[in-house]
Structures are given as structure tokens and as C-alpha cells.
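Bug #77: duplicate submission created two jobs. Keeping one. Sequence:
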Amino acid sequence: MPPAPIRVLIADDHTMVRESLVSLLRSGGVDIVGQAADGLDTLKQAQALRPDVVVTDLSMPRLSGLEVIRRLFDSLPEVRVLVLTMHQEDEYILQAVRAGATGYMVKDSPASELLAAVHSVHTGKGYFGPQAARALAEQLRHPERDLGNPYGRLTPREREVFHLIAEGLTTKEIARQLTISVKTAENHRARVLEKLAVRNTAELVRYALRKGLLD
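Kept job's structure:
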């Protein structure tokens, strides 16, 4: 009896990219169980569909890919995550792996690599393209290296506040959405700005865009 096809959820906010990935993976016998265009929908569909592998971008609206990986790793550790992104910087690669990603490849990789990566990630062997493999090897050689990642030092609640600020919500609106007091929201907001070393919302948005945390 042949093995069951790998069940994959694709997360990318660009429709053309998703459709290309669906076509490519289906031609290789992969079962595409869902598609998501933002981070929150990715989490919602992953909880409902329980895919074997989530193929996700890092830059997505409503919730970044890094935060999606962290939450999937906490809530659905059996689901493997393969990052497919434009980001080649060491900071992104190491943050994704620390968050729980099992594989990492960039979008200018040959298309044939994606199918191999999905299969490898599904078996738990992991898959890291040349950029990711080099970054991981470098980190092993220099574990003391400071990557300077203030976003990674935010608490889960502070990251929620971070994204709501970046979306343009006021402190009162953040308090209402998170069901917390305005004073608590003010405190979270102040700590987020302090940890990121930014002075106001405009600088926070620029930081988020520079780091690929927003579209």
C-alpha cells in the first residue's frame, strides 16, 4: 500500500505565489489541504486542518511568519514548518530556527528543491538551503555572537501590542481588542518602544518594515 500523500498548508500573502506553489507541489503528489494569506488565518487553518507541513513566508500581514512559527511550535509541535522567504540575512534564518522551523529556503531557489524540502521536513530530517546552512554553521562556530534582535526579546503579549501599534491602533483600541485596561496597554506600549529603542509609532513602523515584520 503506497504511503499517504503529505498534507501541506501554504501561507503566503501573494496569490500568484500561492498558486504557483500549489501547482508545483500537487504535480509532485503533495496534498494541499489549505492556503492562507495572513498569519492569523495560517494559525486558524493549522488548528483546524492539522497539516503535516506548513510552508510559510516570513512577511505576512496581521501576524509575522516568525510569530506564526513560534505559536505553531507551542500549540502543534507535531506540525513541521518550512520557511520559504526572500530573506537571506542570518538574523532571520537563526530566529526562524530558534522559533521552531524545521527547514529554511529562499524564494530564488530552484523549483525542484521545494518538493525535496517538503519531503525532508516531513520526515523530520530538516532542510536548509545554502544560505541557511552557512548561517547555522557560522552560529555553531561563534555561539557567543550577538544578533541584536530586540523583537525576539519581546514577550508574547508585547509582540501582540507591537503588531497592533504597527497597524495603527490607538492605546484605547489596543486595550479594547486585548481586553485589558488602558493603563496596562500604556505600560505594554512603553515597554515595546523601550525594548526596540524607538521613540514613537512612526519609528516602530519603520522598524517593522525594515525587519520584514509587516508588508
